[in-house]
Amino acid sequence: DQQVKQNSPSLSVQEGRISILNCDYTNSMFDYFLWYKKYPAEGPTFLISISSIKDKNEDGRFTVFLNKSAKHLSLHIVPSQPGDSAVYFCAASKYGGSQGNLIFGKGTKLSVKP
Amino acid sequence: DTAVSQTPKYLVTQMGNDKSIKCEQNLGHDTMYWYKQDSKKFLKIMFSYNNKELIINETVPNRFSPKSPDKAHLNLHINSLELGDSAVYFCASSQVMLAGGTSSYNEQFFGPGTRLTVL
Predict the structure, then answer these.
(1) What is the nearest CA distance from A33 to chain B, expressed in angstroms?
(2) Tell me: the pLDDT tens digits for A45-56?
(3) Which of A77-86, B21-30, B34-43 has the lowest average pLDDT?
(4) Given a cut of 80, is residue A31 above it in pLDDT?
(5) Which of A42, A52, A55, B50 is most buried per CB count within 10 Å?
(6) Cβ-contact A4, A104 below 8 angstroms
(7) Contact between A101 and B56 using a beta-carbon 8 Å cutoff
(8) Which residue of B has its CA nearest to A89?
């Protein structure tokens, strides 16, 4: 039973355009969400996070939007660069629950073409 | 300057063998984790240790035994390896903060992974 879903296994975007990666979750107890980026043969690298008390968090070219009523979050990358090509994982967790128990989606492979 | 390191990076072994994967973090974090990424690419938590104490054990077979000699190290020992154990294993660490009796934590930092292949 997948509690965190990334329904698009891959996404291809032209350099300079916006990349939008989507994530849906089913557990309404989740209140902390993270995006990780992963290059081949490396471990995931933290990118950006958002608490459920917010609906938007921005860090440079990366913005995460959270729609709690829809149980949906998205990661926007503007402008996209070839170096952004990687697999992006969405993850969710609960404060006060098992410490650090992150539930990951299956990932979306982003390809940014020059 | 590696924050979370794992050894070995690749491990190929026969069914029935016992093997260990080591993990070390130099971030001063008090919580460490082991994740398994299977062939379907799902990253699933296996164990979590906070200050050398087991916090999470996600229904992992008892052939898997984590050991934390100190809070900078969390090693994973696997007995009687099976074909289904083939996967990439990631170690991670984070700093857990307590506020008003409720745990909260920062993002987890991952190691580069150990690709285990059981023949």
Answers:
(1) 10
(2) 999 999 888 999
(3) B34-43
(4) yes
(5) B50
(6) yes
(7) yes
(8) B43
Collect all residues of chain A within an 8 Å Cβ-Cβ radius of residue B44. 104
Q: Does A95 touch chain B (CB under 8 A)?
A: yes
Is A64 in contact with A33 (CB distance < 8 Å)?
yes
CB of A99 within 8 Å of any CB in chain B? yes
For residue B93 the two structure tokens come to 């660490």
Mean pLDDT of B8-22: 97
pLDDT for position A9 = 94
With cut-offs at 50, 70 and 90, classify the pLDDT of residue A77.
very high
Q: Quick one: DSSP state of residue A70?
A: T
DSSP letters along chain B, please? Answer: --SEEEE-SEEEE-TT--EEEEEEE-S--SEEEEEEE-TT--EEEEEEEETTEEEEE-S--TTEEEEEEETTEEEEEE-S--GGG-EEEEEEEE-EEEETTEEEE---EE---EEEEE-
Distance CA A67, CA A8 (A): 18
> Would you place residue B55 in the very low, low, confident or very high pLDDT band (cuts 50, 70, 90)?
confident
